[in-house]
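Narrative of activities, Objective 1.

The group set out to show that a structural description can be obtained from nothing but a protein's sequence at a throughput compatible with the screening campaign. Below is one input-output pair from the validation batch, recorded exactly as produced.
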Amino acid sequence: MSQQTQEFRLDGTRRAIGRVWVPEAPVALEFNGLSYAVMMASPRDLEDFATGFALAEGLAAHAAEINEIANSEVPEGWIVRARLSGLGVERLTERVRTRVAESSCGLCGIDNLKEVARPLPQVAAHARIEPAAVFAALSALAPLQTLGLATGAAHAAAWADPGGAIGCLREDVGRHNALDKLTGAMARAGKPLSPGFVLSTARCSYEIVEKAVRCGATTLVTVSLPTSLAVERAKAAGLSLWVLARDDSVLLANDASA
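Output recorded for this entry:
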């Protein structure tokens, strides 16, 4: 969405400029006819979004358990409907029954504090990613962020092979959504997240680590520093975590490589 606006400058001058706003809309996710969540998201790559979200929530173990994905625009936003099979159906009905609220972070509406510390799956054994691969992926990332380049207000999540070549990238106004879209796209294509690594432009907080682990990543790289809980959860799950990734430096917050 492009709009003409006025830019006011410190020196007292002003000029008319055109800006493209990042798209954002309510996106309702329905599984097996049950309304599960309403997310604020960029309405693109919605099939990937629904798939990655379901995998991260534990509603499905594999993309093959998520079928008949369809989306439609309505006056209030978008609705994405999908059919689940497998053990996730029981989790779906239980969560819908008990949930009082939901958000993309996966914390709102949980029953008690113990659920925050529920064990994560253990990450598979993996080799250490070389810093050169991180720098290669970072240098290739910006030109691929079409939504980010147009708006300056979108997060990106990408998968890179062990050498740093980016093989898939997704963008969204929400950092969690971008990661869900990436993991969903990879799962629908039948491509694992390891070997290789996930690169996120988001702040490295608890939920970004959680989503990466639950969707099969073995190494996560973020451009921002992590929270203390993010590092703790990465260590507990055996996720290698690189943070504060810049053009000329990167920190290894947790080395879980074999």
